[in-house]
Design goal:
By secondary structure, this protein is of the alpha+beta class. 19% of the residues lie in helices and 28% in strands. The longest helix has 23 residues.
């Protein structure tokens, strides 16, 4: 045997030596594609795969050359065995290929006969599917558009290489490569699928959920991003709560941006995405099929729109959810909760939603409350609701199986309906451990689970009439790895390859991958657990309240935005965490979950007065704003701080509440037009290279620029003001320095917010909460462009009806300013239950003295013109904006001598 082994290794070494000169010499190291992605690569392991072995040796012991870090020592030779095309036929949707490989390589159970579908779905959307020709494999149960007919006009052109098999997709107008699989051989085994493509540039956005800067720049580095939902405090370089294998690639030519395009890899199995400075991308997944979408844009917003067309547009939230939310884990008893509510009231803070965490439950049991420590909670909730406020409670997926029989309906009824997950090839329930102790886990892919979930939620709603549900720990979290009995040794629990997941195990802090759902194994569905729970919770709330549901989910997947909002999990009270909140909310807007926020002031650790003040200012401009912290840490509700900080926080909240009509209209546009609520500067100013990757500022819609102070003990912000007309939001003064980075004055009492010329912002005089303030008068902020015009719009309904958009039970108004004439056009006026009276118009950038104002042709005396700041204020209007289809406000001017 030893003699045979020696002969084998001599043959391998001879083989490698014979091909190395021809097949292993790469002109650039960045063109290496990893043939041994597992840890502990060695020359012996690499040569056994018939790959090239050539370690990178740095010239110094501690190399600072980032191009030398993570360069694979084991990489594919140019003639590594791969597939070739043997049939190519035209179909109604495009083309169907058969590709075969003559020999297996290094992964067990390679599939040598594959079918390739090239689907020309729309002019801007191309889909590539590669699957086993003979055996049905798991496919992601996400409802995506089914397009049966090929689009005859496309922005892209597709070409094929027969042997070795490769696909090349280019943009017709520029010839830029959108996808090119010739970079590396296709590996397609039962539990290991790997394919690669060139990137158009080393600049990407997306690929979440990861804690990282907004711009992924691989000009000088190799990156590995891992996808497998995991309960982990947000830190860098690990897989986190959600999975979103979607990215936007910047297309550059001569260092100038020309377009954007996107990729979406529809796959729910554990995967790695490797990025390298070639630039190139490699996808490695351990299940399913290759199902890749290409979106041609050409703008970033176009790419997002095209992506949302596939995964589904986000839901319209209830209006009250746009307000300020307050929560903590650690109220501990109802007296403390009442104390916080009262001091918020006494300090006159506007806020809309009170939450409770698991400490309000009885023994941490779902759908219960603690009748001892939280005695009177139902009456407190009803009292809050009578004042226009709302209440949201936490529900974790783990259900306790240890309560006395007949005493805990969630388990008793679930057991009768057989809706809990089971062990591999068994009817025995898989048992883990979460907050209430031993737990079982609902299978939200089971058709019976939604009815069970609805029934137990409805029974609890009869006790405490909650307005929304918070889905936490739904990765799902498990306090023991796998189960209390461990996991099997089969290939689901111990696959031949494990992506770079935290703790190097798929069962770490979650269930065994072999656990069974009704539709498939947890191996396939783990990363979709939060998606299916959010969908079930959304349906349950609709059935119980007959109103627009509000669901907050920690774990998310493409399409989750149709059912839930999201927050970024258990962050910490640091300025660094506050900074990382910005790339997070920008990324989730790309991912189709625009209603997103973070735990304002930080979840873990004691915050400071400075940090919480700065964070409350920034949080006032998140789509979803909730202040939430952990048990044992000091109170951080805004009323807990000094009088001075309270006033600063209050001003930030009043800005948020005054902008609620603008935010609500943005949500309407997201739901109907696939527009993001917030976006990076680069997406709006793509031809300005200075905006590339800016992630310490952001835009709300296209009109409001937010530049927070993210550095402790500083009073300036180094910010970029793009080349356009801008005004300070509060003062209305026009910005003089544009197109450069500049230091903005930013003392503790100020957050820098600017409004862009050319836009009309609908606003409302705030109330103590959004429901009480709904009847208050509206105002318009009119920011003139360089040509002295502007446009805007306003969507308004009752804020709660589920299908108000479909039924057109709303009002929709458009505003336009041309030649000193502001026109208010009422396009739809079907909601009359709340007054829509315009009280004040503030016009910025009026360069000539205003001498008179008319409203619908009649003189109006109540106006004021500030000649120094060039601001016109028209007040005392008391205009019913719905009384007629079109109304005007005009002013005459004279030149300043």
């Amino acid at each position: 045997m030893a003699h045979f082994s020696m002969i084998k290794w001599i043959m391998i070494i001879f083989f490698i030596w014979s091909i190395s000169a021809q097949q292993c010499d790469q002109p650039v190291e960045t063109a290496r594609f990893d043939c041994h992605p597992e840890p502990f690569a060695s020359s012996e392991k690499c040569l056994a795969r018939y790959c090239c072995w050539k370690p990178i040796f740095s010239s110094t012991n501690h190399s600072t050359n980032s191009l030398e870090v993570n360069v694979p020592s084991c990489y594919y030779p140019r003639d590594f065995p791969t597939y070739k095309i043997i049939t190519n036929e035209s179909t109604v949707f495009g083309q169907r290929l058969t590709i075969v490989k003559q020999q297996s390589t290094y992964m067990p159970n390679e599939i040598l006969n594959l079918t390739v579908d090239l689907l020309y779905e729309t002019a801007q959307r191309f889909r590539l599917r590669i699957y086993d020709s003979t055996k049905k494999r798991f496919e992601v149960p996400l409802p995506v558009p089914v397009v049966g007919t090929k689009s005859n006009v496309t922005d892209y052109e597709v070409s094929l290489n027969q042997a070795p098999f490769a696909i090349l997709v280019k943009r017709k107008s520029t010839g830029v490569t959108l996808f090119d699989s010739s970079t590396s051989p296709l590996i397609y085994a039962d539990q290991f699928i790997k394919f690669s493509s060139y990137l158009s540039s080393p600049f990407l956005y997306g690929l979440g959920e990861h804690r990282q800067p907004l711009l992924i720049n691989v000009t000088n580095e190799w990156r590995k991003l891992t996808f497998w939902t995991r309960d982990e405090y947000p830190v860098q370089n690990v897989n986190l709560y959600g999975v979103h294998p979607f990215h936007i690639n910047v297309e550059m030519k001569s260092n100038t941006l020309i377009n954007f395009h996107g990729h979406f890899f529809l796959n729910s199995n554990a995967m790695d995405v490797d990025l390298q400075p070639l630039p190139a991308i490699s996808y490695t997944t351990i299940g399913g099929i290759i199902d890749l979408y290409l979106f041609t844009g050409p703008t970033a917003q176009d790419v997002i729109q095209q992506y949302w067309d596939v995964i589904g547009k986000p839901a319209m939230p209830p209006y009250w959810s746009l307000g300020f939310h307050l929560c903590r884990w650690g109220y501990n008893n109802i007296d403390n909760l009442r104390t916080v509510i009262q001091r918020m009231h006494d300090a006159q803070f506007p806020y809309d939603v009170q939450w409770t965490d698991i400490d309000a439950m009885r023994s941490n049991l779902d759908f219960t409350y603690d009748p001892t420590n939280f005695n009177g909670l139902p009456d407190l909730v009803r009292s809050l609701q009578s004042e226009g406020k709302h209440y949201v409670n936490i529900i974790d997926p783990g259900i306790s199986p240890t309560q006395p029989p007949g005493t805990y309906p969630p388990y008793d009824e679930g057991l009768k309906r057989a809706i809990f997950m089971t062990k591999f090839n068994s009817t025995e329930l898989i048992i883990g451990q979460v907050s209430p102790g031993l737990t079982v886990f609902p299978d939200f892919t089971n058709a019976s689970t939604v009815e069970w979930w609805t029934n137990i939620a409805a029974a609890f709603h009869d006790i405490i009439p909650f307005d929304g549900i918070w889905n936490d720990k739904n990765e799902p979290l498990n306090g023991v790895d796998g189960s209390i009995d461990g996991c099997t040794n089969n290939s689901l629990d111990k696959p031949p390859f494990v992506p770079n997941v935290l703790d190097n195990s798929l069962s770490a802090k979650t269930l065994c991958p072999s656990a069974q759902h009704a539709s498939s194994s947890h191996y396939n569905l783990h990363s979709m657990y939060g998606y299916f729970e959010a969908k079930a919770t959304n349906l349950a709330l609709k059935a119980i309240r007959h109103k627009r549901p509000f669901v907050l989910s920690r774990s998310t997947f493409p399409g989750s935005g149709q059912y839930a909002a999201h927050w970024t999990g258990d962050n910490r009270a640091t300025f660094e965490d506050m900074y990382f909140s910005i790339p997070a909310i920008l990324s989730f807007n790309m991912f189709g979950i625009p209603n997103v926020g973070v735990d304002v002031c930080g979840f873990f650790h004691d915050t400071t007065e400075e940090l919480c003040t700065r964070w409350m200012q920034l949080g006032a401009f998140y789509p979803f704003m909730r202040n939430h912290n952990a048990a044992g840490d000091k109170d951080q509700d805004p009323a807990a701080f000094s009088w001075t900080s309270q006033q600063i926080m209050k001003q930030a909240l009043l800005m948020r509440y005054s902008l609620s009509p603008f935010w609500y209209t943005l949500h309407y546009q997201a739901t109907t037009l696939s527009k993001t609520l917030v976006q990076p500067l680069h997406f709006e100013f793509p031809n300005d290279n200075k905006t590339l990757g800016i992630d310490q500022q952001f835009l709300i819609g296209r009109a409001i620029l937010v530049s927070p102070n993210l550095v402790s003990q500083t009073t300036t912000v180094h910010a970029y003001i793009p080349q356009d007309v801008w005004y300070e939001f509060s003062s209305g003064v026009k910005v003089k320095v544009i197109g450069v980075f500049t230091d903005l004055d930013a003392p503790l009492e100020k957050i820098n917010v600017h409004v862009r010329g050319g836009f009309i912002i609908p606003m409302q005089i705030p109330g103590s909460n959004l429901m009480i303030g709904r009847g208050n008068p509206f105002t318009l902020l009119v920011a003139q462009s360089a040509s002295e015009n502007a446009t805007g719009n306003l969507f308004w309904d009752d804020g709660d009806t589920i299908d108000s958009i479909e039924a057109k039970a709303y009002n929709y108004l458009e505003f336009s300013l041309v030649l000193n004439t502001l026109t208010i056009d009422t396009i739809v006026a079907n909601y009359k239950d709340s007054p829509m009276r315009l009280e004040l118009v503030r016009v910025l950038g009026v360069s000539k003295v205003v001498t008179s104002v008319t409203v619908n042709g009649k003189d109006h005396k109540d106006f004021f013109y500030n000649v120094f700041d060039q601001i016109l204020i028209i007040y005392g209007l008391d205009m019913d904006m719905l009384v007629q289809p079109s109304q005007t406000i005009e002013w005459t001017t004279t030149t300043i001598n």
